[in-house]
Amino acid sequence: MKSLLAINGNDPNALMNSTLYDADAAMYDLAEAVDESNKDAARILLQEALKFFDFGSTKTIVRVNRLCCCGLEDIQTVGAAKPYAFIIQRGSVENVAKADAAISAVEAENGIENGSIALIPTIETIASLEKVADIIAASPRIKAVMLNASGLLSDMGVADTGDSDQLVYARTKIAMACRAAGIDAIDTPFRDVKDAEGLKNDAAKARSLGFTAKLALNGNQVPVINGIA
């Protein structure tokens, strides 16, 4: 897996067109992309889309809300459609255990083979970064780890300058932990969607530090990410 394309989980047109950009995976966001009044409708829409639309070879990954809010409801509803993986926010050993248990229950309820649905925790706090190896070891479902640089820098109390040097330690630590575990390391998105050269440089930097994949914010970013050796 090299590229993930972020898709609004409550946009029917975006769901239908999410395989058009040749991304290795589509990340359907039920969290920030969906306002509170539409959470229930979004998870039902996504469940139906995943059940009945042919996504071909594109991996279907769902970013759920925080588990302390309605993330477990997201897993219960959308899990019935057997996505490839769930991305959970604020990765921790405790959150991984909760998500793992919720997914196991969904698999059992829907006749899905146990362990079929993967987990991808997000590293976005100082505590999660320092314990990334423990988080990976918390569940055999974990197939990748994702870096959220904005969240991490906010937790550190520093401004996000856009300078990749701010992320060298975090990227290196995550990439090494993922490499040791034999799983993918997914890099934080490049926010300026109009700056193709900046994206290319940022993706190449992450790749040089050991990252295997990167999140794209729109379809135009996907070929740039896929082109990084």
Radius of gyration: 16 Å
Poorly predicted regions: none
> How much helical structure, as a percent, in the residues?
40-55%
- Straight-line distance between termini: 13 Å
Number of beta-strand segments: 8
Instruction: Tell me the strand order in the biggest sheet.
Output: 1-2-3-4-5-6-7-8
What proportion strand? 15-25%
What is the overall shape? globular
Biggest β-sheet strands, sense, barrel: 8 strands, parallel, barrel
Q: What's the order of the H and E elements?
A: EHEHEHEHEHHEHHEHEH
Count the DSSP helices.
10
Mean pLDDT: 96
Helix/strand/pairing category: alpha/beta
Task: Summarize the structure in words.
The protein contains ten helices and eight strands. An eight-stranded parallel barrel has the order 1-2-3-4-5-6-7-8, surrounded by five helices. 42% of the residues lie in helices and 17% in strands. The mean pLDDT is 96. It is of the alpha/beta class and 229 residues long. α3 runs parallel beside α4. It is globular and about 45 Å long.
TL;DR?
With 229 residues, the protein is an alpha/beta fold. It has ten helices and eight strands.
Keywords:
single chain, 229 residues, alpha/beta, 10 helices
How do the strands and helices of this protein lay out in sequence?
Blueprint: E1 3-8, H1 12-16, E2 25-29, H2 39-52, E3 59-63, H3 71-78, E4 85-88, H4 93-109, E5 118-123, H5 126-130, H6 132-137, E6 144-147, H7 149-156, H8 168-181, E7 184-187, H9 196-208, E8 213-216, H10 221-226
Parallel strand pairs: 1-2, 1-8, 2-3, 3-4, 4-5, 5-6, 6-7, 7-8
Helix pairs in contact: 3-4
